[in-house]
Design goal:
Layout: H1 3-18, E1 31-35, E2 41-45, E3 47-48, E4 54-55, H2 57-68
Antiparallel strand pairs: 1-2, 3-4
Length: 69
């Protein structure tokens, strides 16, 4: 598996998911995408809360992968 071949797709997916981020306090939207060894792509975006804590995009992407099994 050559990750370089997937980079344009990963970048596109990260940009796309960043638009779904919930960042009303910082207004800093983050998206991430990662590729598994089975060539599956998982994405995630940041989510902010009123107490100024946040779920980072990377954590959400890993959560999506774990949920899918």
């Amino acid at each position: 598996m050559k990750v370089e071949l997937h980079l344009p797709i990963l970048i596109e997916q990260a940009r796309k998911i960043s638009k779904k981020a919930y960042a009303p306090y910082s207004n800093f939207r983050v998206g991430t995408a990662f590729l598994t060894t089975k060539e599956k792509i998982f994405t995630g975006c940041n989510v902010e809360f009123a107490d100024y804590l946040a779920l980072h995009a990377e954590v959400n992407a890993i959560g999506a992968a774990v949920n899918e099994g």
